[in-house]
Amino acid sequence: MATNALVHAAPGWADGELLTHTQINAIDAGQAASVRRDETASAWQNVPLEYAGTSDTAGLEHSFYTINGVTYLRNTAKDAYFCLRIPQGQTLSKVRLLLIPAGGHAAQPASLPYIKVWRVGMDGSATLLGTGNHTWVDIATYQGGITLEVAGLTEVAANQTYRYMVQVAAENGADSITGTLVQSLEMYVVIDSASGGNGLKFWP
After folding, report:
1. Which residues lie across from 182 on neighbouring strands?
2. % of the chain at pLDDT higher than 70
3. How many helices (H) does the chain have, and how many strands (E)?
4. Torsion 100-105-107-112 (CA) sign
5. What is the reported pTM?
């Protein structure tokens, strides 16, 4: 028994031994921490690109395309949406999107990429949780890869009531080029790993 050492001296329990009140209480105290909750740690987690729609109401223009499992953004003003699967009762802290823009830019695109994180209710009402933008430096820095991050979130996942999404806007307009590589979409979730903590569901 894992908690034996807490309540009884070696070599251990004897057959037919009667337990004292103190020993029984000690077993109960040890049991509260007998299930490991720190196996699922607070960390960045790669999010599968689960498509959740586009802002193109005509449905004729797709804002991204996938070749051999790799996703690219078109240089269009139509946004794409992807699902965030947050463990129930745990806290969404940060979201980031890593992009590698296509080569060949002659100047800064008229509209640069950005992301927005949304909470959507059952009635369709949407609440903006945060926005991540890119600050232009130069072409070399931009084409070398950029990170769009939304930080400072304190959203406790309530999956029975809400769904969570990331809105992704690609570069578009003058001097934009299609084919931005989506390297990864990630979220940082703060996990309650304390014994006796909130109900925990592991990463999907």
Report:
1. 99
2. 78
3. 3, 12
4. negative
5. 0.78
Please name the amino acid found at residue 41.
Answer: A
Q: 136: which residues sit within 8 A by CB, 6+ positions away? A: 108, 112, 142
User: Using the 8-state DSSP alphabet, how is residue 19 labeled?
Assistant: P
| Type of residue at 171 | E
DSSP state of 87: P
Q: Where in the chain is the domain with CATH 2.60.120.260?
A: 43-190
75-96 per-residue burial string, b: 16 or more CB within 10 A, e: under 16: bbebbbbbbbbbbebbbbbbbb
User: Domain 43-190: which CATH class?
Assistant: mainly beta
52 contacts 165 by C-beta, under 8 angstroms: yes
How confident is residue 58, by pLDDT bands cut at 50, 70 and 90?
A: confident
Name the helix (H) or strand (E) containing 166: strand 162-169
For position 4, what pLDDT does the model report?
A: 46
AA letter at 182 = V
